[in-house]
Design a protein that fits this description.
It is built from five helices and 31 strands. By secondary structure, the protein is α+β, with helices and mostly antiparallel strands. The longest helix has 17 residues. The two termini are about 30 Å apart.
Length: about 500
């Protein structure tokens, strides 16, 4: 997949202003409706509509019951918006320091706002909640922040009767959270990530049943899927497209003594067929951001807006397949993202493994009892540790497993190296081979670059292009040479 920044030839009309914390929903098959958001501490309540058939942006003139001289909802951000047929339903959000509890419906056939706040027993005021459509009649909303506490309640709205019902869920519950995503997959709602009680940012995935079938007892299940799962984050997006859920962006936390936000621009797919996480290969990546919007338009995805801790974005980006005509418009400007579970939405992904690769994998699986997965590293030059996403992800997972609290990237990488120093060929996991090989090659290149190093070159794997080329008998030798590199005076970060 290729990222291509949109230009004036892609659209007609007036483009939406920069913003974050807005919503963008597909209404029918021919419109994307952007509403609200925040820019430079100013909350917005404008509507910007993209006509996907005519490729034109426009701002409709809406009618409705005027309140305080305005038609429709007050300015807001971090609200929820869900489309059912030609109607867009909006609930809550934040305006200034006030959490909102109002409920609105926009009829996009006649561009009319209707306030529905007087119907039924509404959920409490909140922002940073997440919601999704259940079929073509109901909406489910989960969690949020009410200004004092994180929420874990589940509400279901019947858009015909306009009644809200709080769902009673027994058993294990996800930790309360806000800034997460909610996505309906057939009969289940999936939530991922968010910021939870006490402030930590989470990377867990939960499924809620009992939303569709009559008589099914509602219940949560925590899912631990294979593959390279996303790092903990909030303010990300999850966009559904056929058998794929595409997760993009968001922010997590770094730092140890002082905390800071880390913004992401990675693409990770939850493949519904294989039921695992897969890292998507992308090129020409946009700047990292959170609280953006991502919508699916045919085979393309449209990214708009967001915030990176300093700036609010107003740029528009397409994420397109390799054979899309506009993919040729922009040559890759950055190194391709890579992982042991690389994912490309292209038929070229389905090429069978080479016989030698398959035999190595089978032998590893048989002897070491590890999961079968072949690494697919980038063929570009070596990158520093802080730019090796697979290495950092592996470091984070190891630190989390060992309950290590540091978020300093240098300390995390050092912890992973100490782990590898203690590993034997029997204990090394297959998904570690790609990052291990690249780190080995980094260390070798620094040893050779150091004029004070006078050791005899005994490094046999410096020119191996990726881990799939390693034989079973190579792994003990690779580890021995790696141990030699680390024990011989240590290695500084580049």
């Amino acid at each position: 997949m290729h990222w291509v920044q949109a230009n004036s030839s892609d659209f007609g009309g007036s483009l939406p202003r920069p913003r974050s914390g807005h919503t963008a929903v597909n209404v029918g098959t021919s419109m994307v409706v952007v509403f609200g958001g925040l820019v430079e501490k100013r909350f917005l309540n404008d509507l910007c509509v993209y006509d996907t058939e005519n490729k034109v942006w426009f701002q409709p003139e809406c009618t409705g019951n005027e309140s305080d001289g305005q038609v429709g909802p007050c300015p807001r951000a971090f609200h929820v918006a869900v489309a059912i047929d030609c109607h867009m339903f909006v609930f809550g959000g934040r305006s200034g320091n006030k959490r909102l509890r109002d409920f609105w419906m926009l009829d996009t056939d006649i561009w009319q706002w209707t306030e529905l706040s007087s119907y039924g027993d509404l959920p409490s005021a909140r922002d940073f909640a997440a919601a999704a459509a259940i079929g073509n009649r109901k909406i489910v909303m989960y969690g949020g922040w009410d200004g004092k506490k994180w929420l874990s309640d589940v509400y279901v709205l019947d858009t015909m009767s306009l009644e809200w019902m709080e769902l009673s869920v027994l058993g294990s519950l996800p930790p309360p959270r806000c800034g997460h995503t909610a996505t309906m997959i057939e009969k289940r709602m999936l939530i991922f990530g968010g910021r939870g009680g006490g402030g930590p940012i989470m990377g867990d995935l939960w499924a809620l049943k009992g939303l569709v079938e009559e008589g099914e007892t509602p219940g949560w299940t925590m899912l631990k899927l294979p593959g390279q799962s996303p790092s903990p984050r909030c303010g990300h997006t999850v966009t559904s497209n056929g058998n794929h859920l595409l997760l993009f962006g968001g922010h997590g936390t770094g730092g140890w003594l002082s905390r800071y936000d880390v913004y992401h621009n990675d693409c990770i797919v939850l493949d519904r067929v294989s039921v695992q996480w897969k890292r998507m290969l992308t090129s020409n990546d946009p700047p990292a951001r959170a609280y953006h919007s991502m919508t699916c338009i045919g085979s393309r995805y449209l990214l708009f807006g967001g915030y990176d801790g300093k700036s609010t974005y107003g740029d528009l980006w397409w994420l397109v397949p390799e054979d899309d005509p506009i993919a040729k418009r922009s040559a890759p400007s950055r190194e391709t993202n890579s992982s042991e579970s690389t994912y490309v939405m292209s038929s070229t992904l389905d090429k069978p493994m080479k016989e030698d690769d398959a035999s190595i994998t089978a032998e590893l699986h048989k002897r070491l009892g590890i999961s079968v997965s072949i690494s697919s590293e980038s063929e570009g030059g070596l990158v520093d540790e802080v730019n090796d996403k697979e290495l950092l992800d592996l470091s984070w997972r190891l630190a989390s497993k060992m309950n290590i609290t540091t978020h300093n990237e240098t300390d995390l990488v050092q912890g992973l190296r100490e782990h590898w120093m203690k590993c034997s060929a029997r204990s090394i996991q297959l998904q570690e081979l790609g990052p291990l090989l690249r780190d080995y090659q980094r260390l070798v290149s620094r040893k050779y670059a150091d004029s004070t190093y006078s050791g005899t070159p005994v490094f046999h794997f410096f020119h191996v292009r990726n881990a799939s080329q390693l034989r079973m008998s190579d792994i003990p030798k690779l580890l021995n040479e790696y141990h030699l590199l680390l024990s011989n005076g240590g290695v500084e970060h580049g």
